[in-house]
């Protein structure tokens, strides 16, 4: 890698919670646990380690880290190869000929690109947001359409191409 940055979500109001109070409501509240059980107590040590290694990092102050990473991918993804290391499947919608997602799992590490996404879900990257709209996102506590799982969502998107066309045809 020629450029590396580590992004952290800061502690600030999340406007997405204004849209739905259920958004990420399934996540633990670490403010209520002892320090030895709170992973956030390690942040200062992580920042020091990154400084020591010369790795740049940033903490978001008014949006989610996902939004900043997506902006980088959209801004620079046509000019350079970008690898996003994350387990957040929302990043699959950013996959392109120059943007891939690294899911580190030791010996089972996978670099997710366009072909991987087609094999795994049967859809294109530009269909992934619609796919998640249909299936939901348990990690973010967002419900999908009842009875629509991954196979049905992929089949609908292959048939109709987009969520907009699917909704138009349903009327």
Topology:
Layout: E1 5-8, H1 16-19, H2 43-53, E2 56-59, H3 65-76, E3 82-85, E4 99-103, E5 110-112, H4 114-121, H5 128-135, E6 136-137, E7 142-143, H6 150-160, H7 163-170
Helix pairs in contact: 5-6, 6-7
Protein model, in words:
The protein has seven helices and seven strands. By secondary structure, it is of the alpha/beta class. Strands 3-4-5 form a three-stranded mixed β-sheet. Strands 1-2 form a two-stranded parallel sheet. A two-stranded antiparallel ribbon has the order 6-7. A hairpin with a 4-residue loop joins strand 6 and strand 7 (about 140-145).
Describe what is shown at a glance.
By secondary structure, the protein is of the alpha/beta class. 36% of the residues lie in helices and 14% in strands.
Q: By helix and strand content, what is the structural category?
A: alpha/beta
> What is the number of beta strands?
7
Number of helices: 7
Rg, alpha carbons:
18 Å
Distance between the termini: 49 Å
**Sheet with most strands:** 3 strands, mixed
Overall body shape: globular
Please state the oligomeric state of the protein chains shown.
single chain
Q: What percent of residues are in strands?
A: 5-15%
Helix fraction by DSSP (H/I, runs of at least 4): 25-40%
Descriptive key words:
171 residues, alpha/beta, three-stranded mixed β-sheet, two-stranded parallel sheet, 36% helix, 14% strand, globular
